[in-house]
Design goal:
The complex is a heterodimer of chains A (430) and B (107). Chain A is mainly beta and 430 residues long. Chain A has two domains: 42-158, 3-Layer(aba) Sandwich (Rossmann fold), CATH 3.40.50; 167-425, TolB, C-terminal domain (Neuraminidase, 6 Propeller). In chain A, 15% of the residues lie in helices and 44% in strands. In chain A, strands 2, 3, 4, 5, 6 and 7 form a six-stranded mixed beta sheet that branches. Chain A has a four-stranded antiparallel beta sheet with strand order 10-9-8-31, with no helix packed on it. In chain A, strands 11-12-13-14 form a four-stranded antiparallel beta sheet, with no helix packed on it. In chain A, β23 and β24 (344-351) form a beta hairpin. In chain A, α1 (2-11) crosses α2 (13-24) and α3 crosses α5. The radius of gyration of chain A is 27 Å and the shape is globular. Chain B has 107 residues and is of the alpha+beta class. Chain B has a single domain (2-32, 45-102), classed as Fusion Protein Consisting Of Minor Coat Protein, Glycine Rich Linker, Tola, And A His Tag, Chain: A, Domain 2 (2-Layer Sandwich). In chain B, 41% of the residues lie in helices and 21% in strands. Chain B has a three-stranded antiparallel beta sheet, with helices on one face. In chain B, α1 crosses α2. The chains are: A mainly beta (430), B alpha+beta (107). At the A-B interface, α2 and β1 of A face α1, α2 and β3 of B. β1 of chain A pairs parallel with β3 (97-103) of chain B, so a sheet runs across the interface.
Chain lengths: 430, 107
């Protein structure tokens, strides 16, 4: 063998260079710097799950729908073959289909005889298992199992928590004198009614642990702030003073609410314990002060005030003190809502006569307008900070729209009702 | 004199070919990168890639993390997905070990 190589070496350039390569490789490296990306969407295939066919179809369609709607994934056609979490994937085949990742699974019985949704996620390029899990489920909970699977896939592939199994609250105007407070899955499905009233319900706000909703109800012909425990349906009155009681916002520890009261005249921000005790006034300026929102670290309360002549956003230390102005661009900036990491702020800005969802990077004060709509209201962050849900108007009726914080992804929430407003995105489902 | 000129020309041609080789690897890997959301700044990840003369990727080793595990994983996926890597026009330009660094944006 060596003899042949040596002999060839005298005549054959190919053989020489091949040998030279092997020798050179030990000490020579080629350094290549790469910037940019081909796409922002990760190609992923969700195979048809095995097991009971009708249940498997529900799960796979929920998983595919969730991932696709997030705008971060390119769904690869998985073909017609059923694949369970126990099937060995033929990686070369999935690579040639263009998938970077592949999920497969099944609906089966757990060891104690309950129904179980199982799945496994594979990295096609690495030819390895990325993760997997099993969730006990039941027929009415199949969609929930699908959302949980989608959450895990999302987190494994993007590095941030998925929000498919979170919930949103919103208010539907179902008739001239019928208001309904609904709670649905984040995709708008599986809605449940928490409250029905002949009078308006506004400003729902989730407690940080997700068990309670604060809101303003006009059921007694005046605005009163309630805290509603979702599991028991029990409600307590948190603020029912003379005049108006409005705009509840939870402190990050869930113990207090910031509320807007007119009991002392004007419109001032107060804090109150979640049981209605310990009312303390926070703002003092003789102006309209409203729409409070705690920073996630609990240090500040952001709010809207017209103290400078036009509605602008300010913040004040949660223990009181002097307010600092936060918004400067434009003559009308309202409804501040801090991102979960506290680094940016969603708000509504009037531009060219339209009210548009905007986002400010708090460190640099840079503002980006995220929509071109006419009348955006009530921004609310997804708990992973990736999306902002807003109420906006299309053809005179309210619809809910989710917008990614870079403005690239916009999606309408499919809620089959006339007039939807006042969205509030719930916390991560732990 | 003539040989000096010839070798200088050869070196020039080689360096052009090497640039082209690097460019083709850069392009293939970049087009396979699907960036995860929420990248802060322009962090750099460095990998050592071992390949066969066929361009087939044998091993990908993270030398320096970008600080964002999802970004590191996305780049590693892109490198593996780019297997086999483009081959150089002149076989002697082939390097078994490549040092690939990645940043999401040009500066």
């Amino acid at each position: 063998m060596l003899g042949i190589v040596l002999k060839l070496r005298r005549f054959g350039l190919v053989a020489i260079s091949a040998l030279a390569l092997l020798q050179a490789s030990a000490h020579a490296q080629l350094t290549i710097e790469i910037t940019g990306a081909g796409t922002n969407r990760i190609p992923v295939a969700i195979a048809d799950f095995g097991g009971e066919a009708s249940a498997a179809r529900v799960i796979t369609s929920v998983v595919r729908g969730d991932l696709e709607r997030s705008g971060l994934f390119k769904m690869i056609d998985p073909g017609a073959a059923v694949m369970t979490e126990a099937s060995a994937p033929v990686y070369e085949e999935w690579k040639s289909r263009g998938a970077d990742a592949l999920a497969a699974g099944s609906i089966g019985e757990s060891t104690d005889g309950r129904r179980e949704a199982r799945f496994r996620l594979y990295d096609v390029t690495k030819q390895s298992v990325l993760g997997g899990s099993a969730f006990v489920t039941s027929k009415p909970m199949l969609r929930a199992a699908g959302h949980r699977i989608a959450d895990m896939i999302y987190e494994k592939l993007t590095g941030e928590p998925g929000i498919f199994s979170t919930r949103v609250a919103y208010v539907i105007k179902a008739g001239a004198a019928r208001y309904e407070l609904h709670i649905s899955d984040a995709d708008g499905q599986n809605a449940q009614v928490a409250l029905i009233s002949k009078e308006p319900i506004i400003s729902p706000s989730w407690s940080p642990e997700g068990g309670r909703l604060a809101y303003v109800s006009f059921e007694n012909k005046k605005p009163v702030v309630y805290v509603h425990s979702l599991a028991s349906g029990k409600r307590i009155v948190v603020a029912n003073f003379k005049g108006s009681n409005s705009a509840p916002a939870w402190s990050p520890d869930g113990r207090k609410l910031a509320v807007v009261l007119s009991k002392d005249g004007g419109s001032q921000i107060f804090t109150v314990n979640a049981d209605g005790s310990g009312v303390q006034r926070l703002t003092t300026a003789n102006a309209i002060n409203t729409e409070p929102n705690f920073s996630p670290d609990g240090q500040f309360v952001y709010f809207t005030s017209d103290r400078g002549g036009s509605p602008q956003i300010y913040r004040i230390a949660a223990g009181g003190g002097d307010a600092q102005r936060v918004s400067f661009e434009g003559s009308y900036n309202v409804t501040p809502r801090l991102s979960p990491d506290g680094k940016s702020m969603a708000f509504i800005s009037r531009r060219d006569g339209s009210f548009r969802l905007s986002i400010m990077d708090l460190a640099s004060r840079q503002v980006q307008i995220l929509t071109d709509s006419h009348k955006d209201e009530s921004p609310t962050f997804s708990p992973n900070g990736r999306m902002i849900l807003i109420a906006t108007e299309v053809g005179g009726r309210g619809v809910l729209s989710a917008v990614s914080i870079d403005g690239r992804i916009k999606q309408r929430l499919s809620i089959a009702a006339g007039d939807v407003r006042e969205p509030a995105w719930g916390p991560l489902n732990k | 004199m003539q040989t000096e000129q010839a070798s200088a020309e050869k070196a020039r041609a080689q360096s052009l070919d090497e640039e082209a080789y690097k460019h083709r690897i850069r392009l293939k890997v970049r087009n396979n990168v699907s960036l995860p959301p929420g990248i802060q700044g322009n962090p750099k990840a460095e990998f050592e890639v071992t390949q066969l003369p066929t361009g087939d990727v044998l091993d990908v080793r993270l030398l320096r993390s970008s600080g964002n595990p999802a970004l590191d994983a996305a780049v590693e996926r892109a490198i593996r997905k780019s297997s086999p890597l483009p081959k150089p026009a002149q076989p002697e330009l082939f390097k078994r070990v490549l040092n690939l660094s990645y940043r999401p944006q040009d500066d």
